[in-house]
Amino acid sequence: MVKTDIQETLEATNGCPATCASPADCQGLDHCTAAAASVKRKTESGKIQSLLTSAVTEEEDEPQSKNFTSTRNACKLCTPLGACLAYRGVEGCSPFLHGGQGCSTYIRRYLISHFREPIDIASSNFHEDSAIFGGSKNFSLGALNITRQYQPQLIGAATTCLTETIGEDMAQLICDVKEKHGDAAAPIVHVSTASYRGTHIDGFHSAVRELVEQLAEKPEEKHSTSNEAKQPVALFPGMVSTADLRHLKEIFADFGLPFTLLPDYSESMDGATWSEYEKLQSGGTPIAAIRALGSAQATIEFGRTLVETKTGGMVLQTKFGIPRRLLGLPMGIRESDAFFNALTEIAGIETPVKYQRERGRLVDSLIDGHKYAFEKRAIVFGEEDLVIGLTALLCEIGVTPVLCASGGRSKQLEKCLRAAIPELPEETLVKEGYDFAEIAEAAPDLKPDFFIGSSKGFSIARRLKVPLIRVGFPIHDRIGGQRVLHLGYRGAQELFDRIINSLLEVKQETSPIGYSYL
Ligand code: SF4
User: For the whole prediction, is pTM greater than 0.90?
Assistant: First the structure.
């Protein structure tokens, strides 16, 4: 039906839905059933919208403009994904998503394509009725099924966007499972992971925090000074690669320091072949070690942006008075020095010669490769602390980071970047809450020589005909993404070699001469 001018005006000014065939049929707004129905619809949708908006903006005080554009191709991943990975870093822990089945399918697909290992993520399988009446039945049935099928020592539950939006009372649900089924269901740890309120990294840190909060116990008696030295150091590395986890364990062993690494998915997500299928892959931090964290001698936690976040390290500090050292991810020379210095202080010994030599070789190689890296321009993207670590390394090797972008919104990125790297140029754009569409819009004018980040940046790098150095998560267009080493002097060395070789490859490929000696 073509609306008349009068109907257009009425619709715009007083809410007339303009459903009459002609203005002559109008009975006035007070008697119009179509208008009443329209008002009801708008009120209902307004309630839902305000629910969603209040959830989204709970932690955001930026007003949204009328032309608000949602995220396009987010530079972050779903929050429960991080929680599931953290749970798989605990021995015998089965991840369990309370929500729709699609969430666990998506997360499994992402983790499998990066780690090239199978991972089962259970789902309580929400349907329309659970969304309306709550999913308590699904949750308790799911917990029983997981216990029967996997015999886990622990169920790591995380709540998806839908469950968070309907406000499921998880504490009550877990109590009900315990009361009704006792030992027939494995013990459950729960973390709240609304994806509209965070990133995969937030989910990861939150799951670690909840494991510590819900499992770590107060030490039975006050230890003497000599015993304290034998207590483990709690190490919370954040979401790093399996190669990084193995390297950290090697470093602690070389310092002779007992430690509890939480989480540790270096075996469960990157293990050897099996003679028989393992439903729940072996490896991970023993639950007994997490319980004993209340008597740790110190905590080392990676993540400069976590300064105001309640993390596992902060829980140990506030509950048990364990000193916490918050460090940047040890990437590049300066951040690695800070890590090795912290270990030297805690262990009371010098950095082992092996690492002093690694550092020396790294410095030597920076001199060798400087002429190739100097004044090259890079776009760095990914989770915020990884961006800080990468930017620190790039500045040390003479590369100018022209854009440092992350989908995270800690409100700490620029502050922490400039504190960690005082020489970072003023003109470097630092963007939080950025998506790949925004990176693609900004990139051509910035004229980067290369991108560094996950494989999700490939299409932009391809369009600009510059290399993408694949680091972080996810890397699902190459083999060995989980084995990329980022940390320590050795990690810096590997990244440096890859960066320089990519630049040399471009030089070689684009040269009309075809040099084989560069
Ligand atoms: S609905 Fe939310 S929890 Fe589920 S996959 Fe999407 S972002 Fe993740």
Answer: no
